[in-house]
Write a structure and sequence with these properties.
Radius of gyration: 18 Å
Strand content: 5-15%
Largest sheet: 2 strands, antiparallel
Order of helices and strands: HEHHEH
Distance between the termini: 60 Å
């Protein structure tokens, strides 16, 4: 017998999107600060901000982008 198909709702789609996002971020590779800063994702001025703001540890590119957004918004501790 075939299984009855479940209706896909907006809530289901949102939950799937969140699960995928969580999987992607948890599997992102972390790099040393200098390698992240050299990424093509950042402009030269962004690299200057990040080199002064980030601590000497490993980051994902997404984490560095979040830090850069904080810097640009002026929410630096």
């Amino acid at each position: 017998m075939a299984r009855p198909k479940k209706a896909i709702t907006e809530a289901t789609v949102e939950n799937i999107g969140e699960e995928i996002a969580n999987e992607e971020t948890s599997e992102e590779k972390k790099f040393p600060k200098e390698d992240v800063i050299r990424s093509a994702d950042f402009s030269p001025i962004d690299r200057d901000f990040l080199s002064g703001y980030l601590e000497d540890k490993k980051y994902t590119v997404a984490e560095a982008k979040q830090a850069l957004n904080k810097i640009k918004k002026g929410v630096v501790n």
